[in-house]
Structures
1.
Amino acid sequence: MEIRELKKKSCEIRKSALKMIRHAGSGHPGGSMSVVDMLTVLYYRQLKNIDPADPHRIDRDRMVLSKGHANPALYAILADKGYFPVEELSTLRQIGSRLQGHPDRSKTPGVDACGGSLGQGPSVAVGLALGAKAAGYDSQVYVIVGDGELEEGQPWEAAMSAVQFKLDNLTWIIDNNGLQIMGSNDEVMGSGSFEDKFRAFGFEVISIDGNDYEQLIAAFDKKVSGKPKCIVAHTIKGKGVSFMENEVKWHGAALTDELLDQALKELDEQEAAL
Amino acid sequence: MSMTATRVALGDALKALGEVNEKVVVFDADVASATYTQTFAKAFPDRFYQMGIAEANMTGVAAGISEFGFIPFVSTFAVFGTGRAYDQVRNTVAYGHYNVKLAMTHAGITGGPDGGSHQSIEDLALMRVLPGMRILCPCDSAETHQAIKLAAELEGPVYIRCSRMPTPDYEEHPFVLGGSHVVREGKDVVLFTNGTMVSQSIAAAKILAEKGIDCAIVNLYSVKPLDEETVRSYAQKCGKVVSVEEHSIYGGLGDSVSMALSECCIPMKRIGVQDKFGGSGKPEELLAAYGLDGKGIAEQVETWLKK
Ligand SMILES: Cc1ncc(C[n+]2csc(CCOP(=O)(O)OP(=O)(O)O)c2C)c(N)n1
Ligand SMILES: [Mg+2]
């Protein structure tokens, strides 16, 4: 897909995710919006051998959404790709639905790992990357981690092991949107520079505007050997919806019908302007 | 009847305790707006520690601060506070017998739409096996206030289990470690329960009364130590025992009750979350789906008694 088409796609994904959250009456719009662009590039350009008709295909690339609360963005893409019917999106978070409040790999086709308990995805991703190498597949493994999520200890244990095992088939993408639940990262637990930290751990670090398509593509395309890659994606929480951007209160709140209409209108305009 | 979620009461209770005890400090892992410890944070910003999303570290730090006479209340979702930080609770707090209070919320399946990853169905099992751990499970606002006050008075670790779903506020009654509260007298069967299941058991007893089944209900708010004497006497009086809990049937209140009764050979039925995880849904829908609303409890009791 060309960049213009990817951008159009991202508007559709954003609208779909917001509608889903509105319909569910709860969910996490802010952190869903910030990852739409990286997910769009991944699913419509980057990931190899992914097949809705065969979601468990062994040689596929893997995508672990460790910040699992952003799954409305992922579900919107998986439905668009045909992993399950688009109509099913309106069952998000409802009883009996395959679309759980947080990613559940045994319920939802196309979901590569469970999420919800923050900080666990990177370890699963290290295992996937290790396994792919050991079994002789050239699958790439991607893991999207929240900046607040990196306050957990486990990701740093995973980081050490990723470098130790020279996992050059592993890419961490840090959704560095600067916010979490109780305020900004700096207010809650200042993490300093992720670039410096991951470089010190031995990753190949690429710092980008994580809502910029040229930069995302260049970062994904950059070849690295002998070590894992870490893309520090500086993003805007709530990206694409004016009243949500950089607003901590939109971490976990459902929209009213009125605000949803306003958001959809804005996204339609952005799409039309492309 | 007014309704309050015990998580809301938790915030109020911590604030009330903070007003009379300046040694009380509260620890959060980026969820204070959901656990309501922000009520305390707003009143006492200097005694509130924001630890970020790092439950394991939070637990260890609380142990350390308690050495200087502070009474730390560690609070997050039950699933993370008892699960994610289990080894820290076990090997630092419990093994070291630190004066740390674990006040957790979103216990059971009534956490609702967030789904199974956020619903703790195993916290009682995890906490019960720890030597020296005391466990309190309040059913309403009054009991939550009493549980928090009691926890601060006790030396050593205490686990307090709170919920997200609003429940009815009952009249206050005495609340002591190892105590219980008889909610309803009855002669055919006794329901041992606590927390969110108290009101559902009352609803079940009403349904069963219409069918001629007279249920006693005992609220075992102190899961550990358990009021074994009351358990035995009501079991003997009624001759049939049912445990009702918003927890896995493995390792929770049912286990505690059957331990107390294992020498007296009285038939017992366990009602709780079967061998499965929770899922997304509205709290009431989930209770119905898991057979834990008044209707579901009544049906299970009736079917069992008929056997
Ligand atoms: C282990 C664990 N602790 C706490 C939570 C509750 N929680 C859900 S999202 C969130 C904040 C996440 O912040 P960040 O990683 O920055 O995500 P984003 O800003 O991308 O939404 C928290 C604390 C959780 N899901 N898991
Ligand atoms: Mg963030």
2.
Amino acid sequence: MPKLPKLPTPPLPPQFKSPPPRPGDEAAGSGPLQQAAEAGISVVDWVDERMSLSGAGRWMLFRKVPKGTNWAYTLGSATMFAFLSQAVTGVFLAMYYRPDPAGGAYESIRYVTNEVFLGQFVRGMHKWGSTVMVVLVFLHMGRTFFYGAYKYPRELNWVIGVVLLILTMLMSFTGYLLPFDQRAYWATIVGVNINGTGPLLGPYLSDFLRAGPEFGATTLSRFYAIHMLLVPGAIAAMIGAHLYLVAKLGTTAPPWQKAEKNPELRKAEL
Amino acid sequence: MNQREKEQYLREYAILKAQGKPFFPYAVAKDSLMACVVMAVIITMSLVLGAELGSKANPTTTTYVPRPEWYFFFLFELLRVIKPPSLVPLATIGVPTLGMILLFLLPFYDRGPERRPEKRPIAMFTAIFVIGAMAFLTYEGANAGTPTALDIATPASVTQQGSTAVAQFNEGRLVVAQSGCEACHQIGENGNNGPGPVLTHIASRLPGEGIRRTLENPTAPMPSFKNLPPKKLAAIVDFLSQLK
Ligand code: HEM
């Protein structure tokens, strides 16, 4: 990446360039003006004195990414961003949604789509955001696969990644039912039935999803709870662990990137 | 990777990292730009494609298309390709579960030190094969016929019984067409061959009572049609009982 250009300093006459006040300097004043100017810093200091999080922040932000890091490395954070977008738009949809199959679910979605200000737009963002997130997860997984990033020492991060992939697919599956139109209803019935053909756990899992042997009144609220509480919580927690490991282990360099071979430089760098 | 290879990797990596740039602001700048692109794509898709809402779910009318979200098409298609009923659980649960387990354990069986794609032929061929297969199945799934119309000649045995029988046959034909059976069954030239068996000559295999039992209490993945109004259910059974 080329160096970012520096803004030129504005041409100020010397007498306007006051030297920065030194700490404990009486003349610079600890007057109200000065205090107001530093209010933000004081608040951060106050919090940090109690939480000591600035170290963690520095650790996360000022770690180095290896030479050769390219645009493919943005796919992970892009996925996370898509997830955040889903979370925000989902909160707005949840303000109107009623998980009641008898009369409510479909009507509330119709209300959002047709009546609420920007409702269709937000619903569209949530709907297509899910597609974008799934595509990004797969691209990110492809990137880590082709770069061999799942190998030592990042095996655990790959495993957490697969859990995230499954959770993302689960989000899509549970969310599909919620509008409760024909498509949603029948696709989900078939999906749950497919699930029931599985060995051992299959039938139990289907019963759990349906909240009983039949597709009933509580099925929808169960899907809703899974879709908007259980799985997003799990995803958020898993992303936390994923990112912790990314910062801890560092991101890989592209596999074809070679470290400096010159022994002199080698020594200097270490 | 043995201990020596591990240490060598870590040494190499430490140098590459030391030669790198700080995450903030360099990587953060790229990530932020990418985030803007993602946002722009989502907003554009929302504006252009909108969010349609079909007619309300109705367990009794079933003019339905059991179609999942597009990124599950490949699973649905897998279900259609693998036909023998004894193999259906294998297709529906076996293949995805196996795939997931293999994906999970990848770092534990692929332990070679080599990371360059061109030096990992097995991994690359497998990956390309899997991606290709999924793309193909998704494409096929997307193009699978939509079950709405049902063109089938009225059998001679029905025509001989007079006009009421023909009317009854046609009513059944309509209900079957509307009920989305063709998503999973082939009837004559219509519908998809799989995951359900072909129904063109169902009556020679299964008496009317058996057909009714299947509809009310089917084996997964076929949905139950128990909640259909009795008249419609009877129409379906009558219709299928004529397909000798
Ligand atoms: C919700 C889904 C996910 C999110 C938000 C996410 C986020 C991230 C982020 C921000 C990074 C940092 C570097 C980069 O972007 O490459 C990363 C790295 C990584 N991710 Fe993910 N990820 C997700 C899913 C996955 C999946 C499905 C896998 C694989 C099965 C995976 C495996 C990895 C690995 C192995 C790394 C380390 C890459 C390296 O060091 O070069 N992640 N992830």
